[in-house]
Amino acid sequence: MTFESRYQILREEMVTHHIQARGVSDERVLAAMRDVPRHVFVPPQHRFRAYEDCAIPLSDNQTASQPFVIALMLQALGLRGDERVLEVGTGSGYQTALLCRLAGQVCSLERRARLAEKAAQTLDQQDCHNIELHLGDGSQGLPDMAPFDAIIVNAAAPALPYPLRIQLNANGGRMILPVGDLHQQYLELVTRAGKRWEIEQMRRVRFAPLIGRYGFKSYDKRENDSDMVAGV
Ligand code: SAH
Q1: Which residues have C-beta within 8 Å of that of residue 117, sequence separation ≥ 6?
Q2: Which of 33, 76, 207, 230 could, after both became Cys, cross-link 156 (CB 3.0–4.6 A)?
Q3: d(Cα 157, Cα 173) in Å, to the nearest integer?
Q4: Rounded to 5 degrees, what are φ and ψ at 157?
C-alpha cells in the first residue's frame, strides 16, 4: 500500500470518527475534509499525526488548528459555493484549501512571512487557484476587497475587531471567530443584517492570539514593531 492510500484511509477515519460522529453534518464540509490532504500542510516530522484530531506545531511558535474545530467553524459559515470569503491567519494553509473548495473566492491574510510563503507553496501544489494570499495585519481586514459574505478568524481576539465587522456583507454576512482572553475564548458567530450584528456564542476554545491593531499587543521584542501599535 502506498503512503498516499494509507493517508487517504486515515483521513476517511478522521472524518467519520472525529468529525461526523461529533455532530458535524454539513455534507460539503465533510466532502472537502475527505478530499484535502492535511499531511502535506504540516511539517514533515508531524505528518504521521496529521489525521489525529489534534493541533500540530508549525514554525514560528504557531499551531495548525484541530480539525474538529475547523469543521465546526466552517459548518457555522454555511457556505454554498459562490461566496467571497476573508480568512484571517492563513497558518499552514490547510483551512484555506478547504475554503477554496467551499466558496467562490478566498482572500487569506497572514502576518508572518515565513508561514505565508510556505502556505503559498503548498496551496499552489494543491491546485488551489481561487485564492489570494496577503501578508499583513488581518485584524484590519482588507477594506479594498470588502464586503465579504463570510469571515473566519483563526486566532483569538480580545473583542470583535471593528474593521472586520464593517467589512461583512450587510445582507446576511457571517463571521466566526474566537473572542476572549489569552487563556480561553468562546467561538462567536456573528450575523449581519444592515446595521444589526447578531452574536451567537458557541463552544469554549483555545486559540493563539490575534496580534495586531485590533487584536492583542505583541510582547515579542524581536518582532517588527510596525504592527505593535494600538493593541489592546
Ligand atoms: N487554521 C490555521 C490556524 C493557524 S494558527 C491552520 O490550521 O493552520 C493562527 C495564525 O494566525 C498564525 O499563523 C498567526 O501567525 C496568524 N495571525 C495572528 N495574528 C494575525 C493577524 N493580526 N493577521 C493575520 N494573521 C495573524
Answers
A1: none
A2: 207
A3: 19
A4: -105, 145
Give yes or no: 65 in active site. Answer: yes
Residues framing ligand 1 (Cβ under 6 A): 62-65, 88-89, 91-92, 94-95, 109-112, 115, 137-139, 154-155, 208, 210-212, 215
What SS3 class is residue 12?
helix
CA distance 209 to 192: 24
Phi-psi region of 136 (alpha: psi -120 to 50; beta: other; left: phi over 0): left
- State pLDDT tens for residues 146-162: 999 999 999 999 999 99
For 223, the grid coordinates are 518582532
- CA dist., res. 212 & res. 43, Å (int): 26
Catalytic residue among 65, 92, 108, 139: 65
- Amino acid type, 198: E
Atom of ligand 1 nearest to the CA of 55: 7
Q: pLDDT digits over 54-111, tens only?
A: 999 999 989 999 999 999 999 999 999 999 999 999 999 999 999 999 999 999 999 9
- Among 142, 112, 39, CA closest to 132: 142
* CA-based radius of gyration for the chain: 17
Q: Which residue has the cell 489592546?
A: 232
Whether the full predicted model's pTM is greater than 0.85, yes or no, is yes
